[in-house]
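Renewal narrative, Specific Aim 1. Our central claim is that a sequence can be written position by position from structural information alone. The example that follows is taken directly from our test logs and has not been curated for this report. It begins with the structure tokens describing the chain, in the order in which they were read.
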């Protein structure tokens, strides 16, 4: 029972450079960035990855007023995933559907907005919104999905910092294998650009990116990188047990065959390449693979100096001088989508199973020698001919590491 195979059958996403998988993939292959100039409260102009999906496609204006931006992103992506899956939603037993969404943080946006509003009224709390509590509880994004879609099965948000997108997928796989649910709606979401606090905190750390050209601001592995570009977004999939997907003739994007999570236990923000490497090794072991079986590694690299260096060291420990494994990065296109990062980065690579192409890492004009790795895909896509296994790295603050491995399904 615990060895049941789990596959991805539907994809919904909102990225700064695409509102569905086709748009997103085209942007990644064309080198089209979604980073723009952006205004945030108290700080003024910053750079950010901003989404432009149709908020009213699955919600009414009154729903948007009552809910949250993270909830709106989640609702859009979840509905798009179910629609893409080809499921007859009217015939699905909603009590057997689970919603598992990774988040970095939740509630900051709503609290900052309420404090700002009452500041206009001498901080009179009578002005405070009665919607504040349901907006800010940690389960809000997943809960808003259940309300919108009539799902009566379990819903969870998984707080796993910037490893959360992978964590959402991992939770879904586990619940499907345990037969707690028959269908999982899972992934990661982020509304981070709507809280000035995240910009202010990265600026205080000296880790907020700047560049006269927004599209060149996020520069993982480049010697001249100067920090993170904050982004919003969401990546959500429908996941099913393989036998169910085959029975209904579903299109299968890929099979999740391995995963792992561990902790550095080292520092609040500084990563540990040894623990990251251990996490990758564990995922490979669970998948029954050797490092040389991986065709593409989707790197986490955030364009922070120590983060990029530590991940590069971890990848050397695992992959050595492998001539088969290629490494790319998606944040260079969209910025760091926090809780959605791992999900969006994996989903952007899945079409490689069909076209055999690894999209590039943008904006590397001078590679940091400390990040030099064999087979980095830099600035231009690379045709690999055939792709069968993708490994997705996603790491977060407080030393949480996650890895998900997806294999091409070939029947």
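The sequence written for that structure reads:
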């Amino acid at each position: 029972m615990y060895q049941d195979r789990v596959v991805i059958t539907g994809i919904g996403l909102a990225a700064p450079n695409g509102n569905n998988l086709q748009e997103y993939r085209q942007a990644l292959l064309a080198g089209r960035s979604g980073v723009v100039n952006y205004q945030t409260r108290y700080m003024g102009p910053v750079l950010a990855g901003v989404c432009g999906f149709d908020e009213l496609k699955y919600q009414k204006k009154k729903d948007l007023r009552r809910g949250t931006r993270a909830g709106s992103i989640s609702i859009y992506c979840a509905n798009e995933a179910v629609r893409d899956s080809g499921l007859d939603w009217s015939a699905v037993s909603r009590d057997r559907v689970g919603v598992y969404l990774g988040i970095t943080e939740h509630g900051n946006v709503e609290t900052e907005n309420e404090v700002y509003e009452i500041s206009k009224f001498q901080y009179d709390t009578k002005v405070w919104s009665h919607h504040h509590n349901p907006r800010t509880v940690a389960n809000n994004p997943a809960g808003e999905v259940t309300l919108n879609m009539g799902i009566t099965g379990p819903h969870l948000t998984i707080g796993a910092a910037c490893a959360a997108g992978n964590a959402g997928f991992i939770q879904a796989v586990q619940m499907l294998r345990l037969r707690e649910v028959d269908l999982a709606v899972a992934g990661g979401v982020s509304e981070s650009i709507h809280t000035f606090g995240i910009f202010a905190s990265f600026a205080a750390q000296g880790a907020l990116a700047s560049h006269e050209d927004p599209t060149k601001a996020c520069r993982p592995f480049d010697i001249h990188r100067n920090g993170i570009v904050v982004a919003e977004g969401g990546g959500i999939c429908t996941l099913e047990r393989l036998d169910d997907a085959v029975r209904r003739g579903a299109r299968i994007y890929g099979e999740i065959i391995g995963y792992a999570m561990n902790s550095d236990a080292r520092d609040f923000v500084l990563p540990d390449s040894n623990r990251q490497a251990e996490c990758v090794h564990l995922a490979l072991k669970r998948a029954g693979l050797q490092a040389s079986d991986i065709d593409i590694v989707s790197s986490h690299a955030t364009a922070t100096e120590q983060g990029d260096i530590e991940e590069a060291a971890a990848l050397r420990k695992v992959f050595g001088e492998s001539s088969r494994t290629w490494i790319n990065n998606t944040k260079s296109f969209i910025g760091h989508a926090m809780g959605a990062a791992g999900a969006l980065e994996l989903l952007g690579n899945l079409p490689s199973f069909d076209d055999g192409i690894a999209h590039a890492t943008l904006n590397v004009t001078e590679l940091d020698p400390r990040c030099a790795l064999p087979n980095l895909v830099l600035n231009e896509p690379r045709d690999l001919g055939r792709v069968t296994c993708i490994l997705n790295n996603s790491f977060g603050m407080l030393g949480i590491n996650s890895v998900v491995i997806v294999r091409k399904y070939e029947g």
